[in-house]
Design a protein that fits this description.
By secondary structure, the protein is mainly α. It has 6 helices and 2 strands; from the N terminus they run ααααββαα. Helix 2 crosses helix 3. It is globular and about 50 Å long. This is MarR family transcriptional regulator.
Length: 145
Amino acid sequence: MSTPALSDTLHRLTHAYKQRLRIGIRNAGIDLPITHVRALKGIARNPEATAGSIAARMQRDKAQITRVLKELEEGGLITRQAHPADRRSQLLRPSRKGDILIAKLQAVEQEAIDTMTRQLKPGELQRFIALANLMADSVTPSEGD
């Protein structure tokens, strides 16, 4: 496959996935900006989540993430707890309301995946995941880069 064909395919795939997610989020009645959704998902996945770790994971300015976290907290979707190892930091946790929203988001994601993979034969999805991870790992900066 030529480089332009691979580029076009990756772009189409990414666009299709994002479009399916946007449709699913809208249909599920989830009224949050995508940055808020990503932050909430990051908090749910990481028991050591802090404002700094979420900003780093999302590759966003800490001030921007701080505003997002404030809005998530005001919306009752996250809580803050004192960090046992760092008094200057707070651990972020999804609230009960946040857990319910995360479950809705997971259902939306699963529906998008099911739609996009329904034509794959057994084993093709695992092969795709392995290849995509190999490609991503080749551009992920390692320590010292």
